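Appendix B. Chain record.
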Amino acid sequence: MSLIWYDKPAGRDWNRGLPIGNGTLGAMITGDEQETVLQLNEDSLWNGGPKQRINNKAPEALPEVRKLIRDGKIPQAERLMVDSLSGIPESCRAYSLLGSLRIRYEGCGEVVSYRRELDLSQGVYRCIRTMKDSVITETILADYVTGTIAFFASSQGRAFSASADLNCLPHAERGYAEGNRVFSLGTMGSLADGKPYTFACGAEGIADGGKCRVAGRYVRAAGVSALTIVLTACTTYRFNDPEAEVKRRLACVSGDSSKTVFDDIAKAHAKDYRALFDKTKLTLPGDTSLEAMPTDLRLSLFRPEDPDLGLICTYFDFGRYLLISSSRKGSLPANLQGIWNPHLDPPWGSKYTININLQMNYWPAERLGLAECCEPLFALMERMAESGAKTARSMYGCRGIVAHHNTDLWGDTAPQDEWIPGTYWVMGMAWLCTHIHNYYRYTNDRGFLKRYYPLVKESARFFLDFCDIEGGKVILSPSVSPENTYILPDGTSGCACFNSTMDISILRDLLTDCLAIGEELGEGDNAFTKEVERLLSLLPPLRIGRYGQIMEWPEDYDEAEPGHRHISHLYALFPSGSITPDKTPELSQAARVTLDRRLSHGGGHTGWSRAWIMNLFAALGDGEECFKNLAALLTKSTLPNLLDNHPPFQIDGNFGGITAYAEMLLQSDDDRVLLLPALPSKWPEGCIEGIRAKGGASYTIRWEKGHLKEFTITAEHGAYNTVVHAQGKRYPVSLDDGESHTFSAE
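Structure tokens predicted for this chain:
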């Protein structure tokens, strides 16, 4: 059993709450000794309908912007970019909150002991309140199968009374009671066709013993032995009549017995959740006596010199739990906060930031057996395609599709904000498209590849038109290195450039993927392919600067922030994998210099940045630096409830962190697998079960005293052929579909 637990209430501190979710519905659970509060979210509840934001001045300004950049007149170019390339209005939609469900116990007496926990192995929250003459146990879960959140409280000892308040302010416009159910309805704006964009939320109370009635927005139970409250919500984003859908869901799980209703939902949830969670397991033998210590105390006492390996495993399980809870088939992708947001105006709109953050959310999925959780990401990309084609054509006069550094549930692709370091970056869709070939490399799903190849193709087509060719070299302009600033020789600061290292690296991967997919699907060797091959052949190489570092811009500029949180110019090292220590040793050394310089100037000060640094060191095969940065992630950038702290809370650090675990233990490409490539000395023995490799195989790896003991490979998606490299030895592998084989390191 993997638990996060506490012996004190969260109170009103959201950062001490515990999250539950089923992809579309989420709740952060807080409260005190007398009440439990579920702060509610529904993933499609945003602060308005789709916008049309393309700046019609962009096409006439673009040639002048490019000329100014080439002439080194950066301030003038950037002023023109703000005036003529910014979206109108400047921002896409922001994620919002649904409301709260507050359950308050009445007349239960003094609580003499209190415990709350999140059971990661079952996907269930529990709270145990002990009074002098009774014990009230709560169990709360979010079930994907029924599309509900279910609350169950039962008493050992005397009966109890409670009231549950469903409050969807400030969005609610109408509410009513019907039988033992309460409903709240509201409008968020208009859809593209002019129809209202509405939501509905409903809750039903069912009690055993005593009485249960509904009054206003309250469910009130008196003298009961058990109480179940089932809640659900949806919007017109998915359903023409959200109110009818809410009633349908509640009717499907209704019944006369509180315990029976909850048990039925819990059984469906357990089967569904464990089918995903049990795919992977990490074991690092440690001091089991620490399990008797509350999680926040364990976190505060974590010391890298004598690490709490059990807490490290719990963090790994928690990250997988969060992905399962915030990204399921039919839901929206996990946003900057997963699905857990308490604000009307959340930090950065809690949107999809696509200059790393959304991509990082999905780094662990295929590696850790959660490929199914990627479906919302690809569905969002499909929705972005129509908008991306309009943006490409109207802003840049290009074919294909483009997106900038932010999007929302509607697939907005116009520039976001008026912020030079990030806004005018054209690589968002291109980077997302690299996830398509990556998914295929893990799953061998040709049907998936055929469905999504058009996105890759149209993204590549945009750059065929967007890029200029000068002197036999590609010029991609305007370009930025996401969110970073350079200093010109005269002391002027700038962001706009041509051919930033990250942009060229992403474009190289996009074009390479496009050719590989076309060949796989038998669509190569045509005029389009030849255009892609030509553009790919003219891309400039990575360059090494005066400090021995990977250059971030086309000139070896100084950085305004040498410890900047983005390490964009190391994209080729990770996640791309086109830099490797054995195949590109000079570039690998330069990448190491780059990392050392970042860290020496205070880099890694945000949670997600620290997680990226972990993955970069893993790619370099440096397990000791991986562990050092894992310790920093836990001690400096992790909240008491184990959520990542940007600050404020931002979920990508959790997902990037557990990706680094996987990269420390297994790395793969199309023709080889590396086992334990970055194993830290603080993990002397352990086992990872169910970690995935490209090519369609699952691995179980065991090690002792810092050395590989044995590994088992199972071919999951067709025949599997590779060469495994492990601590100086090579193991040729050839397995039929479904076949397993165990190799001994001895």
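Further analysis of this model is presented in Appendix C.
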